Amino acid sequence: MAIKSILTSQTDFTGEFPVSEKTVALWRFNEASPDSNNMLTDDSGHNRNFFVSGWSGTSANLLSGRLGRFFRQNIINPTSEKTHLVTTNDGSFFSDLGEKIVVGGWINPTTYSVGQTYIPIFNTRQGPGQPIFYVSLFQGRLRLMLYNASGSLIYDQTETPTITLKNNGWYFIASIIEVNNKRVQNLLCDRSDGAVWQSPVRTFTGDLNQSCIADIVMGMHANTYYYAGGFDDWFYEKDSLLTMEDLISYFKSSILANGGDSAADVDALADPGSVMLKATSGVYAQSGQLFTIAAACSLAGTGRVSVTSEYTAGITAISLVETSTSDDLSSWTEWQAVGASGELQSPNREYIRYRITLSTQDTSKTPKLLEIQLHDIPKPPYERLGFARPVVLDTNGAWEAVLENAFDIIVTSEVNGADILEFKLPFHDSKREALDNEKQVQIVNDVYRIRTITDEKSSDGRVVTQVYAEAAFYDLSFSAEKEPMEFVAETPEVPMRYALLGTGWSLGNVTVSTKRTWQSTEKNALSILRAIQNIHGGDLIFDSANRLVHLLTFSGTDSGALFCYRKNMKSIQRVVDTRSLITRLYAYGKGGMTFASINGNKEYVEDYSYSSEVRVGTLDASSFSNPYQLLEFANMRLAQYAKPRVSYVLSAMDLSVLTGYEHEAWKLGDIVTVDDKDLNLSVKTRVVRRQYNLQEPWKTVLELSTTLRELGDSSAGWDKAADILSSTDVLDRQELKDLVPFNHLRNSRADDGLTYWLSSGFTVDPNNGVSGTASFKAEGVLGMTKSLSQTVYPASRKSYTFSAQIASENLQKGPNGQVGIEVVIEYEDGSTETRFIDLF
C-alpha cells in the first residue's frame, strides 16, 4: 500500500503559502502586534524581518482574516500616515539568482489604491544602489518593471487583466521572472469567485541587476506614493522551482482551507502542525469543521483515508471525516463520509479535499487533529491464495516483479499468532535481483517484509534462493518506545489508539466492548496490542493492505466447508492429551495472596468432571492483587486443565480454487466440519492454524481446535479474569503496620447510620461489621445504579490511600455493569479528574 498524499503541516490546514528551500523571505503577518522594535517576523526562518515605518499614531493594524492575521496600513489618509514596510538587504537578497525568481502574495486594496495612478507594492527603487524590479499598480492594473545594473529600465509592462480590482477585495498576485531565458509572466487571482488570469509570456532584453543591494520596501515609493489596504503572505524566492501551474494550483487550493480563518470554529494556528477547536476566553467551541487544501488523489487502486488525532474517549472526538474530489480544482463532487475503516467513497479524481468535524462534550477540552493520509491500495494481481505467486513491491508500494517461477510457497498463519511467508526461487531467475532484505512482498491482499534471504547450492549443483518474510504488522514491534500508560475502565479502542499512535497504522473495527482497568508497561506497539487482546479477549486482525488493526469478538464464520476422507482430506491426526491434566489448582497472587477468605478457607479450586483422581497444580498469578479476580482466573484456568486437550491436524485440499467448488471456501478462524467414519469422527471445529501451500493447495496442512469459545464475549471467564487492577491491592500485615492513618471519611464504619453520607440505594446493616458492629449494604438491581458518596477536603499531600473491607454474595454484573469506587478529584484551578477503581 502506497501513501498517495499527506496533510500534516500548518499550511495544509490554513491555505497559507508554504515555505520551500528556495524561499528567501516569507511574511505571514500573524503577530498580534510588532515587537518592541516595531519589527514583523520573517516566517522563512532567515530573519529578514520587516520594520514597520509609521506604526504608532496611525491606522496601521494587524487584523484577523482568512489566513490568520494580515497587515493593514494607511486606511485613513495615506499621504499623511505614510505607513510602509522595510526589510534591510544584507547583500544576499539578489545574489545567485539562479534560473528564476518569483515574488507574490495577497493584497486587499482600498478604493484609494484601486483609483490612484501610481501605487507601489513590492519595491527595490528606494536604494541603496540600483533597483532590480518594481511591482506596482497603475490605475488599478498590475505593473512590473525590471532594471539592469546601471539602473536603466529594461522591461515595463502594465497588464490589462480580465479581473478588475475592487475595494476590500482579496487578490493573489505573483510575477515569475526567468533570469537567463529573459521571460516574464504575471498572475492575478480573485478570492471572491475563484477567477484566475495569467498574462502572456513576455520577453525582455538586457541583463537583470544581479548586484542589487537595495532594500525591499512594501507600500511606498519616493516618500510620495503609498499603498492603502492589506498585505498577507508575501514571499520572495530565487532559483525558484515554481511554475505558473504551481501558483494557480496554490491559489485554487488555498481558498478551500479555513484553519486560519477568524470566522471558523477551528484553529490551525495556535499549535502549528495540528488543528483544535477554537477557544474563546479559555472555552472551546462544542464543534467545528476544518476544510483542508486540496491534495493529490488519482489512485491506481482503491483509496483509504487515515486520520491521526489526540482525543479523550467519550469526551472529545474527530466525529466525522468527509471527502470531495475534483479534476480541475474548480468543480468538486458532493461531500461523502468515508467508510467505517476509512474507505474512500468519493469518485477517483486528480485531487481530493477533506472536511473534518471536531467535537467535544466538555468545552474545557478539545480534540487535536495531527495528520490526514490518503493510501493508494493497488488491486492485487491474484484474488485467491490457491495458485497465487509472490509479488515484490517497490518503495512506493507498487508492483515491481511477479515471481512466476517461485515454488514451495508456504503461508503459515495462526489466530492471534504468527503470520509468515516462505518460498524458493531459482538463483539464476531473471527476477532474483528484485529480492532484497526489508523489501515488501504481496500475497493476494496480505503484505510481508523480507527478513532473510539464503542462497544455497545443493550436491547436484542446483542453486536456489530461499526467502523468509514476516507479515507487515511485525514492524509494529519496532515502533517508537511507548511510555507506561494506565487505562481506567476503558474499552479496547482507547489503548489500541494509544498503541498505534505515530505508527502509520489506524484503528479498524472493534466489536469487543468489555471495559478493563490495567496498566500497560510494554515498550512497543505490537506488544501493547497483544496485551490488549490478552486482557480484553477477541481476535486481533491485522489488515496489512489497509494498515488497519481490528479486534473482533469472533473473526471467522461458519463457512459450511466440509473436510471428508476421499473428498478433500488426505490424512488426519487426532491427539487426545492428558499429560497436563489437573483437578485441583492452587493459585497465588501478589505477595503470596490467596482467595481462601472468600472460598471457604480453601486456597484451591477443584474440578472432577473428567477424572476423580486428585492431580495438583499451582498457578503463578503474581500480577493479581484482587482475590475475587484471582478466584475467577483460577476457575477459568481449571476449566481448561481439568479436561484432556484434543487437537486435530489434517492434510487437505482447498477445493475452492476449482471451478464449481467456490462454496467450499474457508479461511483462518472459520468454523468447518470434519467427518471421518473410520475414526467415528464428525465434529465442528475451528481453523486456528494453517500452512497453506499456494503452488500445491492439495498439500495444505490445517490445525483445528474444538474450543469454540468466543473470547471477546463479556460472559467469558477469561474476560473477567484478565482485568488486572494495579491500583487495587489487598494489604498484608506489614503494609498495614507501615500505614500512618488519618481517615478523612467521616462515619466510615456506619456507626452513626448514614450520617455524612449521600445515599442512593444503600442501607446500613447494624449487625454485620468488621472493625465495628455495622456496615453499609446495597442489593444490586439490573439496570439500576446505586451509590454512596461523601465529599472530603483533605490537606495537601502527595498521595492518598483508599482502603475498604468488602464482601459479596452471588454477584452478577449486567452487560455494562460496574462495581467499584469512583474518585472525583478537584484541583485548585477548578479542573476535575475522575478515576474509577474496579472491584469486581
TrEMBL record:
Residues 390-471 form the Prophage endopeptidase tail N-terminal domain. InterPro entries: ConA-like_dom_sf, Phage_tail_spike_N, Prophage_tail_N, Tail_dom. Residues 473-717 form the Tail spike domain. It comes from the Bacteria. Gene3D superfamilies: Galactose-binding domain-like. Pfam families: Prophage_tail, Prophage_tailD1. This is Prophage endopeptidase tail. It comes from Clostridium oryzae.
